[in-house]
Amino acid sequence: MDLDLGPEIAEYRAELRAWIAAEAPPTLASLFDWNAPQTAGGRRGEAMAAAMADPAYAEWEAKLVEKKLICAQWPEEYGGGGLDAVRVAVLNEEFHRAGLPRIARGMGEWLVGPSIIVHGTPEQKAHFLPRIISGEDRYCQGFSEPNHGSDLAAVDTRGVVEGDEVVVSGQKVWTSGAAHANRMFVLCRTNPDVPKHAGLSYVLIDFTAPGVSYRPIKQMSGAAEFAEDFLDGVRAPLFNVIGGLGNGWKVAMTTLGNERGGRATTAHLGYEREFWELAETARKRGRDTDPLIRQQLAWAYTQVEIMRFAGLRTLAQVAAGKQPGPEASVAKLFWSEYHKKLGEIAIAIEGSDGLLRPDGDGYPVTGWQSVFLSSRAGTIYSGTSEIQRNIIGERALGLPKEPRVHG
Question: Fewer CB atoms inside 10 Å of the end CB: C or N, the chain?
Answer without folding.
Answer: C
